[in-house]
Amino acid sequence: MLRLAFRTLRLRKGGFIGTFIAVFFGALIVASCGGLMETGIRSNAEPQRLAAAPIVLTGGQTFELPKEDPASLEADDKRKFEDARLPERVRLDDGLVSRLRSVPGVSDVVGEVSFPLAAGGQPALGHAWDSAALTPYTLAAGAAPVAGEVVVEAASGLKPGDLVEVAARGKTESFRVAGVAGAPRSITQAAVFFSAADAARLSGYPGKADAIGVFTKPGADVEAVQAKVAEVATGATVLSGIDRGVAEFPEADSSGTNLIVIAGVAGGLSVMVAMFVVASTLSLSTQQRSRELALMRAIGTTPRQLRRMVLGEALAVGLLATALAAALGPLLGEWLFGQLVENGVVPAVLRFYQGWLPAVVGAGAAMLAVFIAAFVAGRRAGKIRPTEALAEAAVTRRWLTPTRVVFAILCFGGGTALAIVTVAVMTGPVAASTAGPAVILWAIGVAMITPGVAKVMTAILQWPMRLLGGIDARLAVLNTRAGVVRAAGAITPIMLAVGIATANIYLQTTQQELANQAFTEDVRADAVIGSPAGGLSPDLVQRIQAVPGVAGASEYVTSSVFLEAPYDSSDDGRPAIGLTASGVSATTDTKVTQGDLKALTGRTVALPDVYAKDFNRGVGDTVSLRLGDGTPADVKVVAVTSQRRGFESLLLPADLLAPHTTAGLAPQMLVRAAPDVDPAALTERLREATAGLPVSVGDRGALIAAHDKDQAVGAWVNYLLVGMIIAYTVISVANTLVMGTVRRRREFGLQRLTGSTRAQVLRMAGFEGGLVALIGIVLGTVVAAGSIVPFCLVAADSVLPMGSPLIYLSIIGLAAALALVATLVPAWAATRGPAVDAATSGSD
């Protein structure tokens, strides 16, 4: 039977092109997502500034978070703890440098300090000259810097003896250029070197190091030295090889985690879609060969032989398609990675990987889909009796099986359960975590019963169709009802495309709009002051508050903190905002239900009412926090606030939160105008008051635009990946419809011989395509509603999502246009020749 399968492939090349296309694109998308996941898992970035040191130490960016209430745990029960990632940089004690010098095999140890600045108006990173050896930088002119001097790169255009204005930590100072240095390799970020004392002062972290480079003696075993260093540097992260890049570019590690999530979601969704698309295409291909299979059963072919032939044909096509997809997967994966880099989702220093494993996974997923689809199709063909097969050769009618019923019930039950959980348990935007997967369950459930639903909907739509198109529409309805299983093969991918696109896009637009509303509701600022050089000077608040027309000013710091006592099960931390007590009432509109935000000074906190209720804490109580860099802090509750559900944040004093962020200073300051002062006039006054300072002043629109931009990055990722999956389903729709229409050449010829004109045949085909599109659109809309409505009820108190109606109209318009084009174009081609030639031709 395998030999017969290969002969069939040679003689029926056109009949298997559809299956090839479906398998190829499915494997291609999964393989490319696998490349993104491999890149995220590795999270490798080539070291640049630290490339010369074979071993690099950084602060440990994780801490042990209990999975259960610590009161019920034993101290040595490590199984009940998990690593939680700290969002801010953890710095090392400079005293570790001297201890590491005594480690056997170590020749030298150099501490690295890095801080943002602007030199001559250009952004750069500041370092101590001692750390130049980590690259290594060498002097091309001049000498090493002393106090009040700097060494710059040749690209700056400066030369020894020049004066340069350096803005760092909210202040500007003049430094003399002592020398010009160069590096042996390309460095992404410009560097400015200071004396050790100046670097410690400007960094704001004297006695601390961002990283420590360890040099080994000639001939020493780096791995052995690394193990000894780890014994001495307890709690630090010890890196070697390409892993050293994470010490220099910590954003690569966090971006890698995000990339894993993105690739996992997109790849998993792609696999699910591919399963349906391949199954639908292969099933249609098998149905179109029903006469041939029926004749084979009639001449004595056993069901097992028939199943083996169908399976062999499918696997042969699948192997060819997956081999090509495996070869082209890295190209698509690299293109997707480039788009993520270009749009700021991942840093450019992250290295893209696409090894053999993603190709194998993509091929395996596609071949599994082929095997399952071929097994089902072959089993269906093999079970029928020869006489029944001959009777059903023209039209396949039976479709409902116990397997379909069971899967449909399970999926509808799962979708309903997720909807109940979304409404009853979830709050705010987090409800998307259960609403999102629901669309897949609803889609699978509907796909299982699509032929039956299509038959019912065709019966309902037949009357308006007949009124609209007369005899041509009536023939279209009759053809669709007679070939409902064939039509379901095209309806299913349309349903998937409409359902997935509508659900995912509107979930994203709703979350984005809710986030913008929550931000604009809480922030009452008329102007915002920012810093291009690492942060604002803490004493700037008093200076701004003294400007005429200012009703209040507050620093604005964002981070995440972990609640340690009382016990909190969240392993992602809680959002935290740092504010200045003297200006918090004027610049924010947070409703206070207990206490007073003016008491937000020292080691204090304002808890959202949801947290206060969950943790049984109120004004006067104490809670234990772990700040973003891992520093523990016991704080007193001075207020309880009412915030929009799902967007709650702990409010802390800015001078408590800011020093424990990576920058160490507030990056922004909110300013509120007095009631009788025009906001535009206030902005101009602030520009005058901050003239000469390394700050930027913008109006409220600039503040909101910056927030929108941050939200847009996440939205863009969703649109890109969902768009890729939709493109695949669109290809499948066209593929299925073209296959189904081209095979009807003989039918169209007979119809023309009985009196129909070519135009009437094309109109009938157009009505069929429109009916298929309409059914698919309605089912896709129902599928999308199954996830959107529960989410919107929870997050927005509405059954309708937030977003332009043009999004939905564009989706259904594209689906309808695609269905019509994919039906009419092959119908036009099938009716070009004489009708008698078409009527006497074979089914191929």
From TrEMBL:
Ranges annotated as spanning the membrane: 16-37, 259-282, 314-336, 356-377, 405-427, 439-463, 484-507, 716-738, 771-796, 808-829
Q: Which InterPro entries does the UniProt record give? A: ABC3_permease_C, Macrolide_Exporter_MacB
Query: Keywords in UniProt for this one?
Result: Cell membrane, Membrane, Transmembrane, Transmembrane helix
Q: How does it sit in the membrane?
A: Multi-pass membrane protein
Q: Start and end of every ABC3 transporter permease C-terminal domain?
A: 265-385, 720-832
Under the heading Pfam families, the entry gives: FtsX
Name the domain of life: Bacteria
**Where does the record say this protein resides?**
Cell membrane
Q: What family is it from? A: Belongs to the ABC-4 integral membrane protein family.
Protein name from the UniProt record:
FtsX-like permease family protein
Q: What species does this protein belong to?
A: Amycolatopsis speibonae
